Every structure is written in structure tokens, then in C-alpha cells.
Amino acid sequence: MVAASKKSPLKILLVDGTNTLYRSFFAIPHLRAPDGSPTNAAYGMINTLTKVIREEQPDRVVVVFDARGPTFRHKLYDQYKANREAQPEDLSSQFPIVMELVEAHRFPIVSVPDFEADDVIATLVDRAPSDAQIAIVTTDKDMMQLVSDRVTLLDGVKDRRYGPAEVEARFGVPPERILDLRSLVGDPSDNIPGVKGIGEKGAAKLIEEFGTLENLIEKRDEISAKRARTALESQVAEALLSKRLATLRTDVPLPLGLDAPMVEPDLELLRELYTRLGFVRLVDALGSDGNDDARQSSHVEPISVERIEDETGLKGLVDRLRKLPTVPMSAIVDPRGPTGDDTICGEAVGLAFSLGPDRAAYLAVRAAPGELFPSLPIERVAVALEPILGLVGKGAAPKSSAKRVPWISADSKLLRILFGECGVELATPAFDIAIAAHLIDPAGANSIPALAEKFLGRKIRSWEELAGRGAKAVAAREIPAEGVAAWAGEQVCAIRSLHEKLLARIESDELGPLLAEIELPLTGVLAHMQIAGVRVDEPLLERLADEWSGALDGICSEIYQLAGEEFLISSPKQLQTILFEKLKLPAVKKTKTGYSTDESVLEQLALEHPLPLKILEYRRLSKLRSTYVVALPPMINANTGRIHPTFNQLGAATGRLSATHPNVQNIPIRSLEGIRIREAFIPAEGKLLLSADYSQVELRILAHFSGDESLLDAFARGHDVHRRTASEVAGIEIEAVSDEQRA
Length: 743
Known about the structure:
By secondary structure, the protein is an alpha/beta fold. It has 31 helices and 18 strands.
């Protein structure tokens, strides 16, 4: 990372540390160390620094931060930065971490009381050798005034470089006039007033014509635009104050210069910091230091995997599992079976159990084609495990003499479905790694490889690394059992190790009741829902498919007639030609591939011509037909005659359930077509479908916490809040509100 010394010209890198840290905080959300402390800003900043230094190969580096407390600008204007919100706690807590990391890299740090980082950087630029090439890492627009033939700005996040040409292209004035431009425009983020009534484009024209702010003020009577002239005449003082506030000082008393060459980072300290913060990739990037002790904490013995091949081995495995305090368990499943429709959640290939930190047992429940490695039917395995892992009291009589052992996993619902299809109901899991990780960090990754890297400092293979990706991926049942067994052993032993780490976090974050009382029992509910599935009226869907196909043909004919020619309706390019070149309709929104033809644009164009409305009608009906009417019948399971959607409790950061294959939570209801699709979901013979929903639960919570009298009265009277709101808006009795007004 450290460049070799160069003679000429000197390459200097100046880093606006405060700006870079803020950008990193918002660019990389929800990253935390193993102890739970936020690290996203620190991680982003160090990655930016190392990347820029690697690419720029500088001879000198200085990292500059804003000093604590007010600056000279606050004395000039007491409202300077007065509108800034308080710094997020997760950001402020990372400043000490960042300082440690920068110091470990041995970059000089500068922070001068009464001045901002911008002023310090401007002073360093001013005092640098005249032939030095300077790069400033920042996104602060005020820094644009420093750009010259020897000074460029680098946006380390977006990989953009600003020289004189780029600045002028962006603002319409050269870098030496940016200060005058900013004096007119102001800066809302710093609460610099500027001249209200003059925007950025207007300011650029004025500065281009008059040169400087002072000349513009002196010759303000010559401004042709009346609005701009009037605005400036009434705000001369504000303009001059804004220029003083935006001017970067070059007389800052610096504690150091630019004569100190770069030195090698403290690798041992960096390794210690990266490990503590959970920056596993950065630890790996440091390479080996020749000292095995430095990696002692992340060293893991190879996993020894025992393969269970017959009934005797299965019985012995059950006896050993019975003696464990908890049973870490995982399943290897092909998402869909060989025929694509013979299983609920996929075809089970194998089961793995952790017997210790570095020991696992694997049994294949389906052998790879042509493989001699024995397999045991999953039905037999499920029955054998039921006495120790099954639900107490399930079946004919409780097996009180059998010891039930708590089990943990990273996909409890999947295991409960696999066993449920075999007639064995697993007890509620004691812990689920993925669910726990989701509760701790809803936006973070919850795969076993990601969690092992983050919490254990251990790299284990993902399924894609074993089976391949995309079109080249190999089905699990086609991989030799030896390879699957080794991979499964790594996974299940990682589950064991992660259990302790994540349990500590769950307890410290006071998430234990949420996990134990809601999320873990929910795995059983969802498993039952997926196994039960939903019945659909296939003949009705077939009739709808035919009917809507005919309707689409009719709409097509109308579209061709309105367009005056036939064209591919689904082609945005051809539609653009018809709408904007042939019919000369106004272009509303431009995209990279031409003018937009999205729904919002067509709705506006429908006021000008009947064709866009017909296009919308075609799109909506075509989407409903392809997404539901045509897509649902192939999803019907051949064995059950039902569709079995996948319900995912980790599908959204908000905690809401999501459904896939198909998404039964998103079937439309507000249109006649949507209602007809819903009619295709039918109960079994002699049964009913019951629709239940919380009655405006969010508004009830809002009423409770806000104490709003109108809301409280509405709920006390048992009113439909939306209907009551419509009555108040329309000024009519609540009984007179129509369904359309309520909607």
C-alpha cells in the first residue's frame, strides 16, 4: 500500500476525513462488529483510503478532521450550520475507532481548533511545492474552488475525479469562480444564506457575465433579469456575508507540514483492530505475518465428517445425539425434485449433525446417480429421530421415558417441513442462527458463510462454491456424497459455534422473548402452512386464460388502429417511435435508452391521446394473465393437487412475511380482474376459507401513543376510521360514504 519514494513531481494526497466518514456512514448501512458496536463508517472509510492510496501511489498523505467546537465562521454568523441535525449516535461512536485505524496506518492526522477541515486542506494546498500534484478526497462542493491544473478532487465512493473541465461542466463556471457562485447560491447544509431568488443556473450566467461577486454588486443596475436584479439589490449584505463564510482560509496554523514521507503501517496493530472489528476481508488482505499466534483466535481445525451408511449407524447416531446438550442440525435440499413437483419444499439429499466443534455426522437420504455410497430413506431417518427431537405427546401417546434433546439450526422451517412430510413433527427449535442474526441486524446477511466470517472470523464455503453458479450450477443430488458431506460438516459445525456468539447478542439486546415466544414457534406455523398449501380451481384459470387472451387480441386491434400501424406493443423502443415520432406526443421523461414509456408517463399522455390509455389497459391485463392465470396451474403439486407457496419470515427488514412461488400476498383485489383471480383460490370439499385481518392495527397504536381525540373517539365508537375520515373530508354523514370515497 505504501508507494516507493519519487523524486518529481511530488504526489500529495489530502483526505477530508470528516466528509469521507459521513459519506461512508450513509453508503454502508447496518454493519456491526462481533460485540455489536457499529462499524459501517469505519469500514467504508478505511476501504476508501486504502483503495485511493493503492491507485494514486502518493508520496505524502495527510488525513484532516474538523475540530470540535465552534469555528471562526460561527463568530461571523451565529446561524452558521444552525439547521444541522444532531450527529447520529452510531456515527459519533465510530470516531475513536477511525482514529485508531488511521493511526495504525500511520497516516498523519491534523485537526486545528477554530477551523474546519476545508481550511486546513486549503492551507496545505497553498503551502505545497508549486510543482506538486495534489489529490483531495472529498465530495464537499466548497472544495471545488481549490481545483486547478495541479489540484484535483476525488470522490472515493463513486470513483469520480474533478479537474477544471469537470468543475466547469458541473457548475457552468471555472474553479476560480466557484466561490462567487456559492456566494449567490448559498449552501443550505451549512445554512449559508446566499441570495434568495437566484438559483444555480442563474448565478452561473451572472458570474459568467460579470466575473466576480463584487463586480456584479457594483454593476447590479445592468442585470437584465429583473427578478435577479431585485433579489440582489435587497440582499447585498447577505451575498457578501456568504462569500466570507464560503471562503477557505489559507492561514491556518498547522502543527505539521508536508515534508514527512509515508511510512509502513503497523500490521500487527491493524490485524488486531481488524479482527476485533470483524473486518475479516481486511485481515485476509494483510496476509500472513509469519506469526501463527497472531491468528490463533481464528484458527479452526479441519472438520472430521463421519458418514452414516446403514441402520446400525443410524441407531448409534441417535444414541450419541441423545447425550448432547443440543443437536445442531442442517439439511441439504435440491429446491425442486427431479420432476419439479413431487415435494413441498424440495428434495432432501442429506442431513448433517454436529457432534462437537470440529466433528460432524452426515447421512445421505438420496444417493447421487450411479454412486455406490449407501443412502437411508428420509422417512426412516425421521422416525428414528422422532423420540429425541420430536414434539412431546405427538402421536398415540407421550413417550415420557425418552429424553428430548433441544435442537438448533439455520433453517428450522425447512427441517420441520421435511420431517412433517414424513409424519414426524419436530419440537420447536431451541435456536435458529439465521432468525437470530435477522433480529440482531435485519438488513444484514444471515447466511452461514456470512455469519461465520462476521462473528467467528472464519471463512467457510458457500453452496455456490461447491455446486457452481447460474447455468453452470450442479444439482445437489448429482454431487458425489463425499463432497456434499464435507460441505455439510463445515456448515453444521459453524452453526454450533455461532450459537454461543449469537445467543450472547440476543440476550444483551434483550431479544430473547421475541425469539423464543414469537419467531421460533412461527417456524412451525409456517411449516404447517406450506405443507397444507392452497387449493386452486384449475378449470376456472383455464377459462380465464382463454377469455383474457381474446380480450388482449381485441385491445391489440384497437391499439394498431389508433397507432395507424402494427408494432410490437411490448417493445419500449417501438412504442417510443409511435408515441413521440409518429404521433408527436410530448416527451415527459428521458432515460438512458430514450424517452420513458412507464406507467406514470402514459397516464400523463392519456390526457393528450387515447392510445396511451389503451397501452396501459393492455399492459395491466397482460401482466395479470401471465403472472397469475397462466403461471399458477404449473405450480400445482402433482401429489397433493395444491399450490404450496414458500413463506419467508426473514424476507423483509421490517419483519413482515414474504411469499414466493407464487407470491400469494400480492394478488390484486381492487379491480374486477383481481377479484376473479382470487375466486380461483377455493377451499377443500366441506370446508370454508376464512379471511381475517387486524382492524387498522397501526392506527390503533397511533391513537394510543398520540392521544388524538378524533382517532380515540372513532375507535371508541367502533367506526371504520377510513370511512369516518372520508365523511369528514366530504362533509357528509358516515353512513353516506361510498366504497369509492372510502378507498
